[in-house]
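S2.1 Query sequence (NUDIX domain-containing protein)
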Amino acid sequence: MNMLKTWGTPLLLVIVYLVSDVCFGALVGSVVALALGLIEFIRLRIREKRTDKFLLWTTFLFCLPGVLEFCTEGSDWSILQPVVVEVVLGILFGVFAFSRISPVDGLPVGLQKRFQFSAPQLNIVRKRFKVLFYIVIGHAFLASLLLLLVPGKVADFVANTLIYILVVGYFLVLFLSSFLQMRKFKGEEWLPVVDAQGKVIGRAPRSVCHSGSKLLHPVVHLHIINKQGDIFLQKRSHSKKFLPGKWDTAVGGHISVHETVETALKREAWEELGISQLKVQFLASYIWESEREKELVFVFLCQYYDCIHIDNPEVEEGRFWNRQEICQKIDSGLFTPNFIHEYRLFFKLADEN
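Output structure tokens follow.
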């Protein structure tokens, strides 16, 4: 229902234009589209105090054919009407492809908050628009030459049918490429992609998240301290590709797709340290970025747990470290950069006090 409400007016413009254009011609269709667009524009300004850019663009594009038909009626230039509309559409693609304006700005306001892209995702979207820009502008140039120099069936085919073949063919290539990638990552763990507030906006294979793509994905970290205030650390296995043999946060791991933060925390605590019962306190969340990845880290503190029993090939050993020992060796290269960051963020001030 919300989606219908959001897209309702733009879709209605399309339907009204197509029906009016087929039944009464482009001029009548454009007049009807203009009237509907203006009514909706005024309604949004009065009731919601906003301007819908997508509505303005849609109304303008649907009025253009009627204006061209009126201005070129009876002249040789009337045959270029579809080409001119295509050029306008190509310019719109070019704006999204080559400027800093986000394609999201062209969506209805109700959808803009739902579509949020990271920098790598936005680059991919811009590449798609660049290809569409070259297809549309190239086709418009070819069609205009044929319509003006050698009008006939071939020119009509190029002007009216070929563009659909090219665009559909391009999207088929994208679909096939996406399908092959899905097969490639079929047996791999998929991670949620989130915004800075932790809202899920997509998903991606684990290897892609760790490939330098900087897709923001959520993880959990658990710090365990005993009654003396010592901090438990785990030593990463030497078989791990990333930071082998380094001492790290007691528990750390990714949040899987369709998994809550709490569920992931309990699962990781069990898998890495054999803890089945624990009481935790949420400390904070922050964004951690390295050369290979970008994570939204949810940090928890635990003082009460049933037992620690390490039976995980990814964890070489584990023990409690007192604060003085950590401070003395914090710059020795024994610890992971992520742990050092969190120690200074959550524990160093307490030590100084």
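Strands lie at 190-194, 200-205, 216-225, 231-236, 247-249, 251-254, 278-289, 294-305, 315-321. The chain has a mean pLDDT of 83.
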